[in-house]
Amino acid sequence: MHMMDTPLTIAQILRRARDFFPKNEIVSRLQDGIFRYTYNDLYDRVLRLSGVMADLGVERGDKIATLAWNDHRHLEAYFAMPVMGAVIHTVNIRLAPEQIVYILNHAEDKVLLFDETLLPLVEGIRPYLQTVKAFVMMTGKNAGDFSATSIQPLYFYEELLAKRAPHDSLPNDIHENDPCGMCYTSATTGNPKGVVYTHRAMFLHSLASGLADTLALSETDVILPFVPMFHVNAWGLPFSATMFGSKQVLPGPMPTPQVLLELYEQEKVTLSAGVPTVWLGILQLLDQHPGKYDTSSIRGLVSGGAPAPKGMIKAFKERHHIDIFQAYGMTETAPLALASRLKPRLAETLDNEQKLDYAAMQGLLVPGLEMQIVNEQGEVPWDGETIGELLLRGPWIAGEYYRDSRTESTFVDGWLHTGDMVTVNEEGYIRIVDRAKDLVKSGGEWISSVDIENALMAHPAVLEAAVIGVAHPKWQERPLAFVVLKESEKGKVSKQNIIDFITPQFAKWWLPDDVVFLDAIPKTSVGKFLKRSLREDFAKHYQD
Length: 544
Ligand code: AMP
What we know:
Elements: H1 10-20, E1 25-30, E2 33-38, H2 39-55, E3 63-67, H3 72-83, E4 87-90, H4 97-107, E5 111-115, H5 119-125, E6 134-138, E7 154-156, H6 157-163, E8 179-185, E9 193-198, H7 199-209, E10 222-225, H8 232-235, H9 237-244, E11 247-250, H10 257-267, E12 271-274, H11 276-288, E13 300-303, H12 310-320, E14 324-328, E15 338-339, H13 344-349, H14 352-359, E16 364-365, E17 370-375, E18 378-379, E19 388-393, H15 407-410, E20 411-412, E21 415-424, E22 430-435, E23 440-442, E24 445-447, H16 449-456, E25 462-472, E26 476-485, H17 495-502, E27 514-517, H18 531-537
The site of adenosine monophosphate has 19 residues, from β14, β21 and β22.
């Protein structure tokens, strides 16, 4: 043995926070106000929760589901399950109840922890759950407040924690490749697919998030994950922020752009993370109320989950002096896989517009991972033009879907096939051209819906835009654009004006044949544009 083979575990992350950052703060927005405590308090309560779970019969390898918003109790569950060798399975509260039932039964979850606000949801699914043996409501209230509920056996979080001493015999032989977390991701067709995360994967992913050229997380940061803790572990931030002792601000139930901006100001947030639709909402509010919110503490807004439009990045920078850091990943990649930071040589030589082009790319491969970009001819040249599918492998990339036959088509010869069509330029920067399924195929040629959306969202009157391919009698498919105008611009802008605005940027055959004005673009359960529903509703648009 040349070097020691010590395990990388979640327990180490937690102990580090207790030992080195005991006084650093965690702020949690609850229904009835703001709650604050420290990493020292977190440690104590995590061990109590582990004890409570042991009392409820939870054993190593068991899966414990959560249906919860981002708050301190959810953070406690993130650590309490892994340190006792169990698995925290965060479930997306916005899915249809039938899908939630499928997910809990498929994962065979033993206990369900849920927020008080989600009681009606849990009551609805309770009769269909086959494996859940105990229900814990994450609340300070107790049985007297909920005498009408039929859920059995039902326990109350604060009551349980107050009565239980910290677990004093946690296992010390947890292997780094043991499971510690689980998350399901929606599939285009069929049921959601499960990904199981290991201690080692989460540990290395946290380290990678601290690198100066990725997210540069550190103790100096105040981190607000808008991204839900049920969407790829809030992009790993609860683990990485704890590893580095960063102050965490958890925005609680149903946070709005206004809530976020108030928390940024009050808590001096430096870094916040979410999908582009959230940033579009924040941008609109900042534009409507110039000078109202102090955002000077922010060093960056991490945008991932969908392409960050260049126009949005530009507007934040020029009008509000806020940097958008683009990052790319997926449930299967834990998620951080690409991060967009400008190489110093490029920063010196490029003009502002070129720098924005780079900021709108998904960026460079994160150290520790490997990639291939392939099309029918093999690996594509690094020319920024040739399109291929992105394949990834590495210590925090999933190797399979949990008990799912779809594993075979996605994980091939040791590589994850992402389904994302990309180009890579001579500097190694990757640009997502489209999801494979979203590319528009017109007369045998590909059109990038992302490129057209980007151009549309740069129009000063446009709030949101989405483009889909619609069946066409002559061209197989033609692009159709959907546009949501800003409140103040409604009724003032014509279809032709929109098309004229983007015409200089594209070959004529790329231009959408029609523009449909909507009040809102339908969104997925994690806030991305829901193109599937547009495709269904407008399938015959070019045939009528
Ligand atoms: P999910 O598993 O829900 O996080 O979805 C993962 C998918 O989101 C990826 O396969 C991409 O298609 C898309 N995605 C994530 N980050 C980005 C990004 N920065 N730019 C463009 N698409 C992204």
